[in-house]
Design goal:
The chain has 374 residues and is of the alpha/beta class. Helix content is 41%, strand content 15%. It has two domains: 197 residues, Glycogen Phosphorylase B (Rossmann fold, 3-Layer(aba) Sandwich), CATH 3.40.50; 170 residues, Glycogen Phosphorylase B (Rossmann fold), CATH 3.40.50. It has 15 helices and 13 strands.
């Protein structure tokens, strides 16, 4: 059977949705399932480095229909939302998987089974973090996608509950909770030479708390920045992620280091040299950096209020998203030499085995096969 997958973010996004797509596709390919042929549909070739992370075995496909009268960006958007269906039919695709919460219009009518992964509904839960026009567009796409989908994959129980509450109880039986997997590179030992190279290149401090994710208001990095003032003076904060205007609200301090454009190999080394990982986000659909941090051997301190307890498990520590003193105290209890730190790390590593890639890929492959038989 031929399975098509939405690859826009696979070839465009270095983290987040892009990482989810690349990890899932590679795990599906590593299973060596002769029943599945994977075709990755992208509106353009994207970035060579990201496209090159997909291992051998999948075929990249690009638009064949290029209607006149449209700009390049509009033409690509039209193709992803509708025009792609003709290409899917031509290629004999029987199941199409929207990896980032969207399915094209007309999929069901064309006789192609639609699977969609919905990561979160933050734009409906917390519209204050978005422009109002964007929230209306995202909500329209969400409801249209529900009409096209035969199966919905929620990346957490929190997201499943949000889909039912905000989308409709009638979709409950169509939802499967399949957690995100994480790249195995974060669990691998990083050589001393690589650590030294990365430390010098990014001018990393000797001791630091790490945060990974877009530096935006919802991610709430200011909480950790303010907590830093209550911690030992030799502890720094290293935050890796794309900056938004919110970054300007962080204190100007030589103890705060903001890094962007970090490669995957360098990121693994940065994880490995941290003392603790802080994830103060106010709302997430899952929180894959928590899993990466645990795999790399870091104790995690995250915030309550969404699904982060579900991602990190009972041996991480959680504080309120406005509790500066609590964040400082809990991070300090997670630094090297702290009581039971190593035991918490070991138990957390055991917990995240449920997210290992091939188990996730196996569940997704089973959905494809079930749909192909209906």
């Amino acid at each position: 059977m031929i399975v098509g997958l939405d690859a826009k973010r696979i070839v465009r996004n270095g983290t987040g949705l892009g990482s989810y797509g690349r990890t899932l596709v590679n795990d599906l390919l590593r299973r060596g399932d002769s029943e599945l042929e994977l075709r990755l549909y992208a509106p353009d070739e994207g970035k060579d480095a990201l496209r090159g992370q997909i291992i051998e075995g999948a075929t990249f496909c690009y638009p064949t229909a290029k209607p006149s009268g449209m700009t390049g960006a509009l033409r690509k958007a039209w193709w992803r939302s509708k025009g792609i269906v003709k290409d899917l039919m031509h290629d004999g695709v029987s199941v199409y998987h929207g990896l980032s919460g969207e399915l094209p219009m007309g999929l069901r009518k064309a006789g192609i089974s639609g699977v969609v992964t919905i990561h979160d509904l933050i734009f409906m839960r917390h519209p204050e973090y978005y422009h109002w026009i964007d929230t209306k567009l995202y909500e329209w796409k969400f409801r249209q996608t529900l009409r096209e989908a035969e199966r919905i994959i929620a990346i957490s129980e929190r997201t499943r509950q949000d889909i039912i509450e905000l989308g409709g109880a009638e979709y409950a039986d169509h939802i499967s909770v399949i957690y995100q997997s994480f790249s195995p590179r974060f669990a691998k030992e990083v050589s001393a030479a690589k650590k030294a190279e990365v430390k010098q290149h990014y001018e990393l401090p000797a001791r630091y708390v790490l945060n990974v994710g877009t530096i935006e208001r919802r991610k709430n990095l200011l909480l950790v920045a303010e907590a830093l003032d209550l911690m030992p003076k030799d502890i720094h904060l290293v935050a890796v992620g794309r900056k938004t205007a919110y970054a300007d609200e962080l204190p100007k301090s030589d103890r705060i280091h903001l890094l962007s454009g970090v490669s995957d190999d360098d990121l693994a080394a940065i994880y490995s040299m941290g003392e603790a990982f802080a994830y103060p986000s106010r709302y997430e659909g899952f929180g894959i950096p928590i899993i990466e941090a645990i795999a790399a051997g870091l104790p995690v301190v995250a915030c309550t209020g969404s699904c982060l307890e579900e991602a990190g498990g009972p041996h991480c520590r959680y504080v309120g998203p406005d509790d500066v003193a609590g964040m400082a105290e809990t991070l300090q209890m997670s630094l090297r030499g702290a009581h039971d730190r190593e035991q918490r790390i070991a138990k957390s590593r055991e917990y995240i085995k449920r997210f290992e890639g091939c188990d996730v890929a196996g569940q997704v492959a089973e959905i494809y096969k079930t749909l192909s038989k209906t």
